[in-house]
Amino acid sequence: MSNTHSSRGLSAAALLLAGLCSLPALAAPATGTATEVMAIPTAEVAALQAGFSDSRQINTQRGGDKIYQAICQGCHMPQGQGSKGAGFYPALAGNTKLAAGAYPVGVVMNGLHGMPSFAARLKDEQVAEVVNYVRTHFGNQFTDAVKADDVKLFRK
């Protein structure tokens, strides 16, 4: 077994059972150091950092698409298709619950089931932007826009 996998604390048996690699891959030598393999070009790092605030409490992205990419798509997937596995993340694509703008605003502001509240991390304008984005994309055609003033009603 290669030290590549064991140095990361993963046994060959665990990797094989998880289906993450094949036996020949375990025997293959690693190419490059961990630093080289994990390196991200400086320009890409700068582009990623530009969209985030210095405070971990506040997201600074603007525009529903950017907010969705930064916060939502990790669970709800890039095309809003949702996922099942370690948890259940409902599909936003074609979701009739989004017809009433108050519903997604309430979910974003207060959380629901396993989804956390984003009230402390997003300003009213940002919540309106991402809700409007989701309601008009992924096959959804709910065009009655939510406004920042509508979101204020959900602040505790």
TrEMBL record:
Residues 59-138 form the Cytochrome c domain. Pfam families: Cytochrome_CBB3. The keyword Heme applies. It comes from the Bacteria. Residues 1-27 form the signal peptide. GO terms for molecular function: electron transfer activity; heme binding; iron ion binding. Keywords: Electron transport, Heme, Iron, Metal-binding, Signal, Transport. InterPro entries: Cyt_c-like_dom (IPR009056), Cyt_c-like_dom_sf (IPR036909), Cyt_C_IC (IPR008168), Cytochrome_c-type_DH (IPR051459). This is Cytochrome C. It comes from Comamonas terrigena.
